[in-house]
Amino acid sequence: MTTGVIKNIGWLVNIREQYSLLKGAALAGLPVLANAWLRIREGRILEWGPMNTLLVHDNEQVWDAQGGAILPGWCDSHTHIVFAATREEEFVDKIKGLSYAGIAAKGGGILNSARRLQSTSENDLFNMAWERLQQLMHLGTTAIEIKSGYGLTVADELKMLRVIRRLKDTAPIPVKATFLGAHAFPEEYRSNHEAYVGLIISEMIPAIAKEQLADYIDAFCEEGFFSAEQTERICRAGMQYGMLPKIHANQLHLSGGVQTGVKLGAISVDHLETMDRPAIETLAASDTIGTLLPTAAFFLRMAFQPARDLISAGCAIALASDYNPGSSPSGNMNLVVAMSCIQMKMLPEEAINAATLNGAYAMQLQNETGSITAGKLANLILTHPIPSIAYIPYSFGTNLVKKVMVRGTWL
Ligand code: NIG
Ligand code: FE
What we know:
By secondary structure, the protein is α/β, with parallel strands linked by helices.
């Protein structure tokens, strides 16, 4: 049933007749209606109001929220959910004290994931990723971006992107695809990085564009990985085919990735664990979104992203999971929201906006999802009854998600 009305909503969260990218102080404004109803028509949001104004139409389907909150589903704008194998051995090695270099020497890291993916069939990769995606939907994620980047050969990057294409065709939620051939230098290019950059630009990008497999272009702009200059060349090559940049920037070092992203008009620069004043001010003066990935910082035991500095400078902030086997083996956006409040001192209202409306902007899906707005998809989270909005991040680790609706249908 994709048409009906939800009654007895304790809190209807993020209702907006008009919306825009939320920058700086605006991020804290979360419009909420207590004791509400919400009408869905043909899988889209139609109208809402306070409970004492509800008129149920003849033969209309009625759902009872029983005092739970309704939120727009989470918009996870940065994931790597197509992978062949988990990497818990590295996790244990790190607990025992092995360094990043030590793990790389044992054949770990991104290249480990690439080897495993190269020897896994497209079908098996699809089945594993589809399983993960369904789990994420049940946790409230109803729009997602997925990256390639564990292929690292022309054939295997195409294979990964075809898996993402199949996820797009299969999943009931919006899916965006990002080409991340510039994730790490393969072993055989260890002493000739330029040759791999050349392969990305002259072979991978045209082949991907021919099959229209990618919406966005990404590069891991980081010391020991791709320089700001290489990132710029790769992104410009993608942009010639209409792929806008979304860049891994400033995770481990001041890589220049933020400035490069802003210069290119990137949709987003993501990670941002390592920021200085010039990077923050450059981002604040732009329309590029800073996407923070707190569970990656948590899992790698790094300092969290300076969310307060970014917000007070006037930046637009989104939150995403970075779900991947190496640095964030969780795609639970409820945890991302809680962690951003607990560890980065984001207000509950800021965190919810960053994980819904601004996350939608970070995938150019703001006209489809991210807020309770007439005409947007009825992609919604119904929570168990909660005393307040702040209770959502406060009660971290408790699953408050009772049900998830996608295009007007409960999963
Ligand atoms: O976003 N930073 C680069 N890439 C991933 C992690 C990759 C991996 O270890 O597999 C990230 O954190
Ligand atoms: Fe990532």
